[in-house]
Write a structure and sequence with these properties.
Layout lengths: L9 E3 L5 H12 L4 E3 L18 E4 L2 H10 L7 E3 L12 H5 L5 E5 L10 H18 L3 E5 L6 H11 L2 H4 L2 E4 L5 H5 L1 E6 L4 H7 L4 E4 L9 H7 L4 E3 L8 H5 L6 H7 L5 H7 L22
Parallel strand pairs: 1-2, 2-3, 3-4, 5-6, 5-8, 6-7, 8-9, 9-10
């Protein structure tokens, strides 16, 4: 494709995946501008993997700080620049605070990928959440990750919850709908990018730190920027209402999660127009030798 098409630059959205990383390496070999980014909130693999792109786009200050401070990426290789997104245009916190909040949302994940047992996680988290839903007259929504089996997770729900608790619990699969977050009183997850999506919408999201299995310090970074509120054990779930109070997320926290890049700056990074960026230009690499 690089031979047949007039490729100007390469943007790689996952430089850990070899199938998307290879085009980036080939572009570097040809002296083309290269930009990488990550689809999730953070990518801890930058702690040990080499940065091949000219620049990594961080979605906000939280990701920039993580790349520089935790992963040790050189400052000149990182630039804040999230894509434009509907989530950057949010209703005012004051309006949402007085809107109906009928749901407690648990964002589930495919825990088995990291060697964990999904049922054990459900056993820790769902009973106290369902107890809260009953006492507060709310609905507990278990929102599944696309990689999870809905039939398996529904079976887990029936195994770990009493019949009464099941009456206020609903399992939801499919794409995440903005309406679900907007209707959430609060959210709970073990560790998920959805914490940032809640933060930019002013929804408190609690993180089950005692169940964190990844070694990259994601929850600590979320907590450092106020993006998520850590819980140290199942007993703390029942104390969530008292922690909410008049909870309102600081606008600075939203900005730390998501700062869109100016289109003209993005064009410059990709080598378009008269203002082509040369700040990261170390592209004079002999053909046939990967960096």
């Amino acid at each position: 494709m690089l031979d047949a098409e007039p490729v100007q630059a390469v943007l790689c959205a996952d430089d850990t995946n070899p199938y998307t990383h290879i085009p980036l390496l080939l572009a570097k070999q040809r002296g083309l501008p290269t930009v990488s980014c990550h689809h999730g909130a953070l990518d801890g693999r930058y702690i040990f993997k080499r940065v091949h792109a000219d620049v990594i786009l961080a979605k906000g200050k939280m990701e920039e700080d993580y790349l520089l401070r935790v992963c040790g990426v050189a400052k000149e290789r990182v630039e804040i620049g999230a894509p434009a997104s509907p989530q950057t245009a949010m209703p005012k916190t004051e309006h949402r605070r007085h809107s109906p909040k009928p749901c407690i949302v648990f964002f589930s994940e495919s825990y088995e990928v990291s060697g964990a047992r999904g049922k054990d996680f459900y056993l820790d988290v769902l009973p106290p959440l369902a107890t809260l839903a009953l006492s507060e007259r709310r609905e507990l929504v278990v929102k599944l990750h696309p990689a999870e089996s809905a039939s398996e997770r529904r079976r887990f729900v029936t195994q770990v919850l009493s019949p009464e608790q099941q009456t206020v619990t609903r399992v939801v699969s499919g794409p995440l709908q903005a309406d679900l977050i907007e209707r959430a009183w609060f959210a709970v997850t073990i560790l998920s990018t959805v914490a940032t999506e809640c933060a930019v919408r002013g929804i408190p999201c609690f993180l089950c730190k005692w169940l964190e299995s990844w070694p990259y310090g994601y929850i600590d970074q979320f907590a450092r920027f106020g993006v998520g509120l850590p819980l140290d054990g199942p007993a703390e779930i029942l104390d969530i209402p008292s922690r909410l109070g008049n909870y309102a997320i600081d606008p600075a926290i939203r900005e730390s999660c998501w700062q869109p890049i100016e289109p003209s700056r993005f064009e410059a990074l990709l080598g378009f127009g008269p203002n082509r960026d040369h700040a990261h230009d170390d592209r004079n690499i002999p053909t046939g030798h990967l960096p």
